[in-house]
Amino acid sequence: MSRKRRIFDVDLPEDPAEVPEEVETKSARRGPMASAIGEVGDARRYREKMEADIRAENDALAHELVRLKKLGLVTDLVPLDAVRTTKLTRDRRISDRLDLADLKTSLREIGLSNPIRVEADGAGGYELVQGLRRLTAYRELLAETEDDCWAQIPAGILAAGQSDAGLYRRMVDENLIRKDVSFAEMAQLARAYAADHVDGCTSVDDAVNALFASVAPQKRSYIRRFALVMAGLEKVLDHPSAMSRSVGLALADRLEADATFVGTVSDALRVKPERDAATELAILRQVVEGHAAPLPTKKRGAPKGRSGRVALSVPVGPGVRATATQGKMELRAEVDFGAVDRTRLEKAIEAFWREIEADT
């Protein structure tokens, strides 16, 4: 049997026509399984991108939190019993009355406007850096009222691991700004700082320079003199923070001149064992005024006339002016001192000091 002849033939074009852009051909060729797999892949890639974005944001937040902690700008409510005051020697005597009546009244009425500063110890507790009076006031209010609202205190939390020297500076600088820390308290802090060899410090002089770098040199000199007083009389003074500057400096001069003067002061104070701050200060002043021991010889130059600002006439050339004040000598002239040879300037300064100390 012969094959049956085809009724018609299909003629295919050699070059297929271009498919219009608006015609979607991909979906037409994909089956249900391929579409499902594509959707799962798209979802996985989207989820991975979201996770990467979240991790990047969390890393940025973590770094920002660490930065703010180092600056003490992270504030939280801290339980009172979690705050200790043992790491740093305080520049206030906790045993002294801190005059908290006004502070407690303010806390009751408007709350705490300035948080304390603490350092996390890494074990769930905190060491106090700044705010002894505020912390003590909160503890007293909790004891007086038994109200749990006083059981926690707002605190700026410093990151753990800061140097002791930096923490001491934070504590000292805050109280220097408030101007309510006595010379005796500052001297005691310097002595403790040196005794603990903080940051390699071995002497009271170095401790004063490190702790009180932001105060005037004259004030640092006073603190050193009070450190001498506290070294000799620490055990017999009940109210050292009440000691005035003039009495403290006079005591330092007499202690430096006569080592037995410690016994004289101690005997005078033991006469009145139950004494308040005013009585102790009066006893110290009386002992100082009645003690005739010679004062130590000091290199202080020529005897001073009147204190204050003194303008001097310097007959060395036109336009030369000089002004002398306490701890300062200022020369003004139409000379570019920066252009003068350094060796010549040094020799001139040496000659100046030789003349100043000629009569000492």
From TrEMBL:
Output the superkingdom of the source species: Bacteria
Q: Where is the composition biased (Acidic residues)?
A: 11-22
Q: Where is the composition biased (Basic residues)?
A: 297-307
Gene3D superfamilies per the UniProt record, alphabetical = 3.90.1530.30
Q: Which Pfam families match?
A: ParB_N
A GO term (biological process) for this protein? chromosome segregation
Disordered: annotated span: 1-35, 294-313
Record-linked InterPro entries: Chromosome_partition/occlusion, ParB/Sulfiredoxin_sf, ParB_N
Q: Which residues form the ParB-like N-terminal domain?
A: 76-176
Instruction: List the GO cellular component terms.
Output: chromosome
- Name of the protein in its database record: Chromosome partitioning protein, ParB family
Q: Which organism is it from?
A: Jannaschia faecimaris
